[in-house]
Specification:
CATH class: Alpha Beta
């Protein structure tokens, strides 16, 4: 385990580091990287149920959540907590107050897709992450935005200590899921290979964890421990009751509104793909299937 990720007792939360060094000096962010439709919302929710972690969902889309979703009805995207909008959510109202105190800027004016600001003290993402940590009282914040480009930017900000979790789903399952929503087929095979190749290259010398979607569903405790242990955190049984935890995730799968903790492996691709499509996916993703690692922590 990399000592940079060892912590002693963050805000009274027990951990497995056993009196290790204080470790992290900056804002602590767990970044879920991977392709869409790979289970990032589920991993986000299960991490959020840990007492030391607040999960913000797809923080990349935070600004969009403040915009009117239906102009005719003048409705907004609801918060995962059940509030009809982030404007009416007590937690995000508190985050807004924190951003004003930290930077004199309202939350809605912070552009999460502004990757030009390299001064961490002025970077919208740093301000937002710090405000979320302050509002939640949690030392770790999760961003499940997935995109490699965003991960590269965040890792380059001096005030952030980013720990990546590379999320991988079996390609036939991921490609079948994304094509059902967006159509297309061949382009998703190329995108699967490209995204995972980019992430693997980016993390080749960086401490990180790998989580397989199938492992997360079948053995959530072991999969979660692969992310938590390098951070000096113990698995908490409440993480298996993830749907019952307070949650305020931004965007993502609609399961963030569910009240059920049931874990069901999505194998609809078995009947939803033809034999020719399965062969095409196996052929097109042969490199990633041979090289992407199994679930576990990677020290370097």
């Amino acid at each position: 385990m990399d000592d940079r990720w060892s912590i002693s007792d963050p805000k009274g939360v027990s951990n497995s580091a056993g009196g290790g060094p204080e470790g992290l000096s900056g804002m602590r962010v767990i970044y879920i990287a991977g392709a869409s439709h790979s289970g990032s919302t589920l991993l986000d929710l299960m991490l959020n149920a840990h007492p030391a972690i607040f999960a913000g969902g797809e923080v990349l889309k935070l600004n969009r959540q403040f915009e009117v979703k239906n102009k005719r009805r003048e409705t907004y995207a609801p918060c995962a907590c059940g509030a009809p909008s982030l404007w009416q959510c007590p937690f995000w109202t508190k985050v807004d107050a924190c951003t004003r105190a930290l930077a004199g800027t309202p939350l809605v004016d912070l552009d999460m897709q502004d990757y030009s600001e390299v001064d961490a003290s002025r970077a919208p993402n740093v301000i937002a992450f710090k405000a979320m940590a302050e509002a939640s009282g949690k030392p770790f914040v999760v961003d499940s935005s997935k995109l490699p480009k965003r991960l590269t930017y965040l890792m380059g900000l001096e005030d952030l200590d980013v720990y990546p979790a590379h999320l991988i789903r079996e390609p036939k399952g991921q490609i079948h899921s994304v094509r059902r929503k967006h159509g297309g087929f061949v382009k998703h095979i190329f995108r699967y290979e490209l995204i995972h190749a980019q992430i693997s290259h980016m993390l080749r010398a960086v401490p990180h964890s790998v989580v397989r979607y199938e492992d997360l569903v079948r053995d959530p405790k072991t999969a979660l421990e692969s992310v938590l242990a390098p951070l000096g955190l113990d698995f908490d049984p409440r993480q298996l009751a993830w749907a019952e935890a307070e949650k305020h995730e931004v965007a993502g799968n609609r399961m963030r509104f569910d009240a059920s903790n049931a874990l069901v492996l999505d194998t609809s691709w078995r009947d939803g793909l033809s034999a020719a499509q399965k062969l095409a996916i196996d052929t097109g993703t042969v490199l990633s299937r041979r090289t992407l690692p199994a679930t576990g922590a990677v020290s370097s």
